[in-house]
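Collaboration report, partner site 2.

Our partner group contributed sequences for two proteins of shared interest, and the home lab folded both. The records are reproduced in the order in which they were received, starting with the first partner submission.
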Amino acid sequence: MSSKRTALATLLGLGALALFADPVLAQGYDSTTEELIRSLNNQLLYMAIPITVLVEGILIYTVWKYRNNDEPKPTKENRRLEISWTIATAIVLLVVGYASYGVMANEYVSTSQTEFDTQNEDVVDVEVVGVKYLWEFNYEGENVSNQGTLVIPNDTDVRLHVTSEDWIHALHVPEMGLKQDAMPGQTNTIVTHPTDEDNYTLYCAEYCGVGHSEMLGEVEVVSQEEYDEWLDDQRNGSD
C-alpha cells in the first residue's frame, strides 16, 4: 500500500511541477503573440496532466496488482470499454483542435496572413531583410533604414515584412514569440503588438553559412515618444 501511495504522490508531484513551472517563469508577457502561444501551451498542459496521471496510475496499479501472476489469462474483448475510450479520445482531440485553431488562426500568430487591418493608421510597417550575416530594417513611409537594431513602439501593432537578399534565413525573437522565414524573392508577414518596454535578442534560426552564429540583432521596444524622437534623429542623421 505504501508503494502505491508513493507512486501516486510522485505522479501528482510531477504533474504539479509541470503545471506551475511555466507561469512562475513567465512573469508576464512581452507581446500579444507570446501571450497567445503561452496561453495555448498552458491550456494543453492542463488537459495533458490529468490524462497522464490517470493513464500512468492505471498502468502502475495494474503492474503492481498482477506482479506475482505466473499464469496470466488472455484478455477478453470489452466493447463498452473500447467505445468509452474511443469517445473520450475523440472529445480530447476536438477540444485540442478547437483551442489550437483559435490561436493558430489569430492574426498575431498566423504566418500566412499578409493583410492586417490596412485601414489602421497606427500600424508600424517594417521591411526586415536578411543579408549574410546581418539584419536590415526599412521603415515604410518614414524614409528610415537601420541595421542590427529594430526599434519599435510599445502598445502598437507592428507588421514585419520579412525577406532575404541572398539565401534562406529566419527571424527569431523568442521572448516575443516571433519567428518567420526570410526567403529570397518572397515576403512573409508577421504581426505583433508589444506590451512591455524592453530589449530583446534577435537571432537567425536557419543555418545560413559560416557567419550564422554571428547573425544577431536586437529589438528595442520603446515608448511612442521615444520612437518618434528616434525616427527624427535617424532622418536628421541621414541628411
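Second partner submission, folded after the first:
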Amino acid sequence: MNRISVMKPWLGTAESEALAEVIASGWVAQGPRTAAFEEAFAQHQHVQHAVAASSCTTALQLALIVAGVKPGDDVVVPSFSFIATANAPTYLGARPVFADVEESTGNVTADTVDQVLTKKTTAIIAVDQGGMPLDLEPLRKLCDERGIALIEDAACAAGSTYKGAPVGGGADVSAWSFHPRKLLTTGEGGMLTTNNSEWAARARRLREHAMDVSAAERHDSTLAPQEHYGEVGYNFRMTDLQAAVGLVQLGKLDAMVLMRRELAGRYREAFKTVQGLRCAQDPEHGTSNFQSFWIEVDPGFRLDREQLLEHLASDGISARRGIMAAHRQPAYAGHSGTVSPLPVTERLTANTLILPLYHELAQHEQDRVIASVLNAGGG
C-alpha cells in the first residue's frame, strides 16, 4: 500500500527551467529575480512594498524592528502557533505575552488580545493559523486606539482572503513563509509586506547588513560606490535561485487554492454527520487557502486524537498532530509571558489533527483517507 503524505509541494519542470536560467545567468545571490519576485508578490497581495527575506521568522524579526519594538517591550502573540511566532520577539529581547484563540478558527481575536495587554505592550502578532483568515478589523481598531503596532503573521496564508481582499494588507506589516509545507514554496524563504515606504526601505537595508548600497547596485557599477552601515544589520537575504522558483510558484497559486478548497469541501461533506468530529471551515469574514485541513476529535468519537493518528498510520496515511501550544514547550516553561489561562489553546492542541491535503492529492487517495477516518469512528 502506497503511503499518503500529509503534504507535498507542487513542483515541476517549470521550476527546474527557472533555476537553470538563473544558474546560466551567473547571478545566483539576491538580485534581479528577487526584485521581480518582490514586485509580483506585492501586486498579488495588493500592497505597496514587499521585501524578500531568508525565512518567515527573519521577516517577522524585521517587522518587529521596523515597527519599533525594543528590548523590554511586551508583544502579544498566540501560543497556538508554531514556536517561531514567539521566538521572533524573544530574539529582540522583548517578551512574548501569550493570548488565547477562538475555537472556530484557531486565531486570536480582539477580545482574547485585550485580556492580556500590559502597559509595556507595543505590538501584537496575529496569525492566520493554517491559512484561516483572522478577523482583522476589530484588531485594527484595538491597536489604533492603544497606539500598538499590528503585525500579521501570514506564514500560511498566501491565497487566503479577508472580506474579499488578500489577507495581510490591513496590518501595519505582515510576514509570509515559503517553506515547503506552505502552498507557495521557495524551499526556504519569506517575505515582509507593508504599505509604509520608510519601513520597507529600512527592512531592505537591515536584511543586507544595513548597507546603504545594495549588492545589485555595487555589481552594476564599474567603480563601486563606498557603502556605509548606519546600524547593526543582519544577513537575511533571499537568493535569486529561490526567487526564480517563487515566481513560478506565484503563477500557480490561484490554481492551488482552487484545488485545495475543492478537496477541503470533499472532506467536510464526508464528515458532516460523523459524531465527535469538527472540521475546519471558512469564517464569515473570509476564505481559507486550506494550507492545513484540521479536524477536532471530540469525546463523541470512538477514538481519541492519538488513537486516530495511529489508526491512520496503520492504513498507510500520514497525518499530524494539530498546532502546538508554545507556552507548553520547554523553551517557554514558566515563561512570564503566560499571564492568563489559555483553555481553548490547550483543548485544540490536545484534540486536533491535520489530514493529508495537497494540490496533487488524487481522488482515490483522498477516498482512502476518508474511509479510514470513517472506519475509525465505527461508520
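Feedback sent to the partner group on the second submission included the following. The domain at 13-251 is CATH 3.40.640.10 (Aspartate Aminotransferase; domain 2). The first strand starts at residue 49 and ends at 53.
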